[in-house]
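User: Hello, can you help with two protein structures?

Assistant: Certainly.
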Amino acid sequence: MTDISTTYMGLNITSPVIISSSALTGDLQKIIECERFGAGAVVLKSIFEEQIRAEAEHGVSNSNEMYHWFPEAKEHVMGLTLDANLDKYLKFVKEAKKAVSIPVIASINCQTSNEWPRFAKSIEQAGADAIELNISIFPFNASLTSAEIEGQYVEILKAVKKEVSIPVSVKLGSYFTNLCSIARDLVNNGAQGLVLFNRFYRPDIDINTMEVIADNFLSIPEEQSISLRWIALMAGSKINCDLVAATGVHYHIGVIKMLLGGAQAVQICSTLYTNGIPYIETILSDLKDWMAKNRFEKLDDFRGKALNESTTLPSFERIQFIKRDFE
């Protein structure tokens, strides 16, 4: 019998398909539906400290001139607003845990260093099975070196790990000088999982209005090559954590490719906006059919099977570039 169960950061999951953080996982009924159609786990919609603070700042600025003269009152109100939103998120974590039996992973994105561990500790107490740190520090500050940016990622992780005992993963973007280096630093400091990669909004320009707009909200299958490359490189170098592929995984073919490349599981999102939540069942059914056709009984029978020395050496991509140029 075909078995598609696996583990992620020590958690038992019934399938390798995890629903990534999005508006879908910010709705309790949709989370229940994801479980019904076979999702192995869900990552709840992120709680964004920066967004909460921006909303609070806007409210305070428009409410009363008193805050201009009494900044301590403004900070107090800001703190109350932050706590109220955190309490709302914690309530949602508890509701999700009661509603489904699959692992519930909370996602946090903070702006100030002291809030990461505070949020994480509260989320653990609310019953989350694990935490995904959605860290996004963009290199827009010319005075901040690459090493300093990477150091901030590590310090955030270390601060969170001091406060919680549940598994912690880090969802990374691909904007690093040396991805393998930052990955190893994070693993050496306690990251039990790495999610490759975070997909940021892609800006565009409307030539009629001549304004910058947020476009390309959904991923496309062609984008999976970036995640596949780094999943294979890191799995091939035997990095000591679970690797999860994200971005561009739309069909069972993408799931299979990532597993062949060494991924422990995959995260999907855009395909559910396009095809609906029931499409999870189709992906898993097609995965099982492929496994049966190739006589694989479980995922470990073929996980990492595509890896070999030539595909995991750093020179691989450059060799392929040269071949394409001359053939």
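That covers the first. Now for the second protein you mentioned:
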Amino acid sequence: MNGCLPDESTLERLRQGIEATSPRPHHSALLASFAGLLPGCELRYAFTRGGWYRPGGLIQQDGSRVTADLERWAEEELAACGGDFAECIERHDGAGLLATRHVGRSHYFVGVYGKGAADFVQLEIEELQEVLDRQLLDPDNLPTDLEELTDPVEPLRVDAQPIDRAYYRFRRLTDIRRVLARQPGTANIQSALSRFMEEWEQSQARARGHFSDQWVIGIREHKDRYHNTQLAATPIPRHARKLKTFHWNPEAKGVELAAQIQSFDRVAGYPDAWYFHMVAGGLVPRTIAYILKNDLEDGFSYLSETGVKLLDRWVIDPYGV
């Protein structure tokens, strides 16, 4: 299939609907805002990733706004002082200015349009809230350059009180099949993500549901040394939280290791889960692959047929993604 990415006008309607919606638990209003915009590819909530933030602005003690962009403000203030950093600091020392930050969470929504592992679109929406972060200047440890002013190693923290309401921001809508096509590889060397998804389709996991039921794709863009935009894509397990409580015995083998493998797959909810989390999730130690191989050679047969094939290929040609 050709995916279900919308045209520019529909994409703009999607963006406007998202950013006009106030955050609510379970994202019910958000789901309603883009219902019907992607026919044949209905979006559903998948996963939330939090714990990140971005630099914010600057406010006075009375709450009035100085700037929404601290870094730009600092550069302009330094320029106004003729590049004299000491003068810039002296101008604002004692003013009690407060720096803010935008606390963020990324919400992932997926819409499946085919049976292949990569046959889905992924919508990323940020939920942000500006909160107090720190005193701009610590009188006992004044910055000596612009970097220390905007991003000090040991900031003088203040209580992270919200200074504005939380809001949604559209991040990106991506056809994962197109992402897969952009992953680095050659005629003879398959990209890691392509191999990961191909192996999913060859495993028993496929019979338990679509790839996007278990994984989303973390996407990062960066510039290479030639200033070309490169795309890095990494599988992120949707249900890692419930699996993090699983403790592997790295020295187990035979019957004990078989029990660990079967228990992990049961908690994950699909067969061969141990393998995919070994390759991408980071929850299964890779040393287990070699212990499993020794068990197979010793006559144990507790892995599925596809699990054996995946393991054999990995031992010959190990990889991670």
